[in-house]
Amino acid sequence: MTKKIDPIRPTDDEARALARDLISGARFAALAVLLPDGMPHVSRVALATAPDGGPVTLISSLAVHSQALTADPRCSLMVGEPGAKGDPLTHPRLTLQARARFISRDSDDHGALRADYLQKRPKAALYADFADFSFVRFEVAEALLNGGFGKAYRLTPEDLAP
User: Fold this and answer.
1) CATH number for the domain including 125?
2) How far are the Cα atoms of 66, 82, 96, 119 from residue 79, in angstroms, in the given order?
């Protein structure tokens, strides 16, 4: 019988810092959702961090991924971009498994979230107040960090806290 090797390393401060840097530095993310028919769908979304460091986006209710998240908030985000040189698989990337939470315009959270998001993504001011746009917080359940070849880590929401 072949012994199964666990490729996940123990999470350390270096992995935590890299994961937080990938989230805070991300201008966009690949967002994976499940469509109502059960098929997966991936979109690119603008991304920023909320004042508490959690990932947040601004999306239109007209978008396929928005409609999917309304039906089923389970999703996954991937951040991290390959560098200009070398094998793209050697560059760090982080997958966040999360639940999307739409922020109501009349909530206490909306005003501060809007101000913070627009400070980080000023061009979004062009459409942030359109009736079909909403802020969405991604409440992370778990994260998987690939820090490069042979550097895989599993992180908790606490590991990602600033």
Assistant:
1) 2.30.110.10
2) 19, 10, 8, 20
